[in-house]
Structure formats: structure tokens, C-alpha cells
Amino acid sequence: MFPQVLTSIASPYTFLGIVIGCIIGFIFGVVPGLTALMAMTLILSLAFLLPPDICFGAMLGIYTAAIASGGFTSIMVNIPGTPAAAATAIDGHQMARKGMAREAVGAVIVSSILGELFSISIFLLTLPFFIYIVLSFGDWEVFLFCCMGLVAAGALAGKDPLKGWTTALMGIILGLIGTDPIFGFPRYTFGVSELAKGIDLIAALIGLFGLSEMLMVLKERKPYQLIGKVSFPKLDFRIPMKYPKTFLTSVLVGLWIGFIPAVGEGVSPWIAYDFSRRLSKNKDKFGTGWIEGVVAPEVANNATLGGALIPTLLLGVPGSATTAIILAAMYLYNIPIGPLLPRLRPGTITTIIVLALISCVIGLLILYILTPMTMRILSLPREIILPLLIPFFVLAVWGSAYTIFDIWTMFLFGILGFALRLSNFPLPPLILGFVLSRPLEMTLRRAIVQYSTDLPALFLRPVGLIIIAILLLMIIGVRRFARRGQ
Amino acid sequence: MITEIMISVVILMFAIIFLRVSLLEFYLPPQPGFIGYISSPHFYPIIISIILIILCTTIIVKSISRIVGREKKEGKTSIDIFSAKRVAVILISTALYIYCFDKVSFFIATLLYLSILIFYLNPQLKYKILLYVVLGSFVVSIIFPEVFKITLPVR
Fold it and tell me: Second label for B55, Cα 20 to 30 Å away, from A68, A123, A325, A442?
């Protein structure tokens, strides 16, 4: 097994694949609307031309760089580069406005890379434990776990959790538009055929955060400008030692969320942010430009990879949309998928894990080298950089599904986001609700169908009971936190 | 405070419409020995709509009671004429740009859109604007679709 792994990773072409993957991932991460998923799909289309190791190396390089660099745009222009970087904007952008952009970007790079390294290493060490845990989790427990994300949305609203929960529920309803995932029944389409496929996440995200940010900033007589030196980011590798609780909590949240099928890196940063805020001694500083508020989501979004690889490689069930692309590549290369993989192709899992670890190291270098140029572009006067982003938004939304309808959806979501922000309704819970909408419904309905003959038994499942208890404590905590804030 | 109430009312109406649609399209009546509506596509939306209605009503009641109690206004909730004008110009120009997306050459539309908008937002930067607009339009409409293979409706 080891000679095979060594032969795979020692090839210069594999390294080149990772480097190219990191550069592509960096560009896709920085430009709002382009995601790691799109870049990985691009590589998947070339899978027929590439040997498996180069293809997997490039894909993992894309993942590492795109998820990390998405935080740059969140920090510099308050518009998430990828859905996974939306939570980073809360504290990251405040840091940039205080002239601490280099520190914030440095924290993004270090947290992302170390988060992924830790998560992959933990994945290696705790594989048997995770297999045991996954067997005790049914649909009901996954549903309750997703509910924890919704309760956390209340905390994201700060003083008024009701507003956070309201926008989160609104996000859920918007996420329900389209074809019912179980019966294929069209819902809330109001006769509009384009709505049958549902509202596009990219269009909603760009509208809510991109267009609304542009309106919010440019309505001012003198829009804010970023201050501080534009140079190489300040990398502080002592972050795990300085904020051990935040770091470890976020790694575990990332692993856990990645582990739950189909949830992925769009959700983990929010939950990690909320958990870290609760556990931090400086919880009052969160939201004001505090570095832990950048560390938590960035560690979690990259750490999701470790968790997502577990069901993908061991069960053949993708942990996230990005690992679904890796799974698709495995199909293309005729690699056996599921529990038999370790027996039939013993080197494959190890090769993928080693490639992920190498992509972290190469990703760190690429991110460090490309950061000053990116920061310089993103530091242009707001009156120039924000309008310049609009054609990018239009093109990105167009590129995701090739329909004008989605571009208009983005426009309407921009107006919605602007109106909500004017009324002090928080936007992050809306996108969280939108992302969680389908997993929540699917798991709840499946659980109901499974327990249709004895519904009360659902509430007696031991793991479920523990999660319900945590949920109740969270609700009480959010209410207390809000009262103290007032 | 007023905008807060207005937005809450809009969300409330939105939730009521969803609830109404869900109830009208209620096509699986409960039958003995069959779980029916609990697993139907409308059960979950009904629950969410009802909770949303309760939350919105609570926010509206709280906001009204705050107005009655003459509490201090929190945060920026108003928008002056200058800002309203700017927002209107940005929205109208963006809407026109989107409208032209599949009708006019993307490069020309982008060039015009960026020129008008950036010049309107910052008229002092005359020569710099020209550079940014031409460079930005070129990157967005020529290089970007070529590199990432995004086919444009009109080149």
C-alpha cells in the first residue's frame, strides 16, 4: 500500500496539479459567485484526460484555496467570495475598516490551513469512532442537529433574536420554493415555470450580500474607504495556542457538519461562530471586529473537508456538494465506492488524505503569494470596486444556470437584502435558513415516515433526547444573551 | 422603527400567502392507518409559516409598544433624499443593464453601465474612471468568459 501511495504523490505532475488547482481555487474563491464547487466541476470535465492522482490533487487544491480565499472578499468588501465565507464577513470586515485587513487576511489563511490539517489528521486518527457515531445517527437526529443551526441564527441577530429567527424562517420558506424533494410535487411556483427548480443559492447569496452591500455603502455621501497598509498578510501560526477553545471547537464543528450528509461547508462556519462566541471569554467583542470571529468560521469551513470525506470514502455518501464531485470522479475512474473501498483499493483513501495534506501546504504558499495583489484590487475606492463587481455578479449568476431569470432573482434579493438591512434585520440567518431548508425537510419527513406507526417513539431516541436537551439550553442561552445585550 | 414594522408586515403577508397556498393545495387528507398529511409536501411549510406568523406578530407588537412608550430609535432606519436618489439611480441602471444582457453586446453594455455609474458616484476621478472602466469591461466581458468558458447570450 505504502509504495503505491508514495509513487502517486512523488510525481511532479501531481504537485503541478495541486499548484494549478490552488491557483484556480484562489480565483474562484475571491470572485463572488464563483465557488469551489464550480471549479471542481470544471476539473471533473477534464477527468478523462488526467490520471486519477492529478485529478484528485487538483480538486483538493481547489477546495483548500477556494474555501480559504473566499474570506478575503468577505473581509475587504463585506461580500462573501463563496457561501462558506459568509460568516467571516461579520468580524473580518469590521477588522478591515479598523485598518487591520492584513491581520484579518492572515488569520483567514492560517486558520483555514491549520483547520484543514487538523481536521484531516483527526479524521485519520478517529476513523473507527466516527463509523460508530454515524451508525447511531438517524434522520431524526440529523434534523435536530440542523435545528441547532437555526437556534444559532437567533444569536447572530445580537440584541433581538426574534429578528434572527424571523429571517431564518423566511430563508427556509424561500428555500422550499420549487419541486418537493420526496414526491416531486411543485410547490409555491405561482405558475412560474422557472421556479420549479427552486431559487438558485448563488443568485440569492449575491443579491443579498453583494447588491445590498453596494446599495448600503454607496447611498452614503462619503462611502467608507479601507485604511491600512496593503502588503503581505500577517501570518500568526500561534492562533491555535492563543485561542485553543475557539480553534478546537471550530475543528470539531467542521468535522461534525462535514460528517452529516449533504450539509457541508455552507453551514459549519455559522455553527462554529455561535459556539465559539458562547465559549469565548470575550463574547461581547464578537461582531465588533474581533479576531476570534474570523478564526472560528474559517477553521470550520476548511475543517469540513475532513468530516465530509468520512461518509464519502467509507459509505459512498457525499458529506457535502464538493465531496460529491470527488465521488463522481471516483465513479469515472472505476474506483469501488462504499465500505469495500479499503479492502479492494487499500491505497486510495491514504492517497486522498496525503494529497489533502500536501494541498494544505501548497495552498498556504499560493495564498500568501497572491494575497497582496488581491488586497490591492479589493482596496480600490468603494465607488469603483463595488460597481465593477456588478458585471462579475451578473456573469457568475448567468454561468451557474444560464437563465436570465436567475439574474433577476439576484436583483430582487438585492432589494430584499437592502430593505432588511435598513430595518436592522440580520441577513446571515436568512441564508442559513435557505441552506438548511432542504436538509431539514428531508430528514424530518423521512423520520416521520420511518416512525409512522409509532410517532412518540421518535422523542425517545437517546441521542435525539440529548440533542433536544442541548437545543433547549441553546434557546435559553440565546434569550439570556439577548437580554444582557439590551 | 417604522421601517421595522413595515418589513415585519411584508414578511407577515408573505407567510400568510404561503400558509394559504399550503392549505389550499392540501391534497392528502388524513385517513385511519395512514399518516397522510404529516408526510405530505405541505405539512412542513405549514408549520414554518405558522411560526413565522407568530414571530412577525410579536415583532410588530413589540415595535408598536416601543413607539407608544416613546423609546429611543435604534440604529439607522431612515434614508434621506440624497441617499434615496442614489439608490434609485443604482437600481434603475442595474435593472437596465440586466435587461440589456441578452439583447446588446455584453462588452458595450458593461462599458456603458460602468461609465455612467462610476462617473455618477465619483465625478472627481475623471481620467482614472476611464482606465478602470475600459480595463474592468475588458476583463469581465472578454477574458473572464474565455477563461472560465461561460458562454454569453450576445458577445
Answer: A442
Question: Where are the strands (E) in A125-245, listed by range?
Answer: 178-179, 186-187
Alpha-carbon distance of B2 to B10, in angstroms, equals: 12
Residues from chain B that touch A153, judged by Cβ atoms under 8 A, are none
Contacts 24+ apart (CB under 8 A), B141-146: B141/A391, B141/B106, B141/B107, B141/B110, B142/B107, B144/A392, B144/A395, B145/A395, B145/B106
Residue B45, all three cell numbers: 411549510
Cβ-based neighbours of B100, under 8 Å, separated by 6 or more = B109
Cα(A64)–Cα(A39) distance, rounded to whole angstroms?
Answer: 12
**Taking the model in full, what pTM does it have?**
0.77
Q: A266 vs chain B: nearest CA distance in angstroms? A: 22
Chain B hits for A429, CB-CB cut-off 8 Å, are none
Q: Do B90 and A215 touch (CB under 8 A)?
A: yes
Which of A392, A398, A445 is the closest to B44 by Cβ? A445
Return the HEC string of A323-378: HHHHHHHHHHCCCCCCCCHHHHCHHHHHHHHHHHHHHHHHHHHHHHHHHHHHHHHH
User: Three cell numbers at A379?
Assistant: 482596496
Contact B129 A211 (CB under 8 A): no
Q: What number is the ipTM of this complex?
A: 0.88
Q: What is the mean pLDDT of each run of 10 residues along chain A (486 residues)?
A: 65 88 88 75 74 90 89 86 85 88 90 91 76 71 79 69 88 90 82 87 82 85 70 84 91 84 75 85 85 92 86 72 80 78 78 89 90 80 83 83 90 93 84 80 85 80 84 77 57
Which cell is A123 given? Answer: 479524521
Cβ of B48 within 8 Å of Cβ of A165? The answer is no
Q: Do B122 and A384 touch (CB under 8 A)?
A: yes
Three cell numbers at A8? 502517486
Contacts of A34 in chain B (CB under 8 A): 148
Burial class (CB in 10 A: 0-12, 13-18, 19+), B104: middle
Q: Give the dihedral sign, CA A268/A273/A274/A275.
A: positive
